[in-house]
Amino acid sequence: MAEKSITLYCREGSSDKIYQVNLRAKGDAWVVDYANGPRGKALRPGTKTETPVSLQAAQDIFDKLV
After folding, report:
1. Which has the closest alpha carbon to 23: 49, 45, 50?
2. How far is CA 57 from CA 21, 23, 36, in A?
3. Rounded distance, CA 58 to CA 38, Å?
4. 4-23 pLDDT per residue, tens
5. CA 50 to CA 11: how far, in whole Å?
């Protein structure tokens, strides 16, 4: 499977935010990283996988975030 990424935008009321989610290979396993924050400002990065996990586990985490 190839790596995946998605960028989502949310405008609701006075809120204008960006959400990015990345599913990427790390060695023989996979990680899910994200970043979010107000549009036009620095995004706050994070990870949903402290250690690399199986592809299925990473895909489930990715799908839940999206």
Report:
1. 49
2. 15, 11, 22
3. 26
4. 999 999 999 999 999 999 99
5. 30
**pTM attached to this predicted model:** 0.89
DSSP 1-66: ---EEEEEEEEETTEEEEEEEEEEEETTEEEEEEEEEETTSPPEEEES-SS-B-HHHHHHHHHHH-
Are 21 and 6 in contact by the 8 Å Cβ rule? The answer is yes
Beta bridge partners of 17: 10, 38
Rg (CA), the chain: 13
For CA atoms 32, 1, 59, 16, the dihedral sign is positive
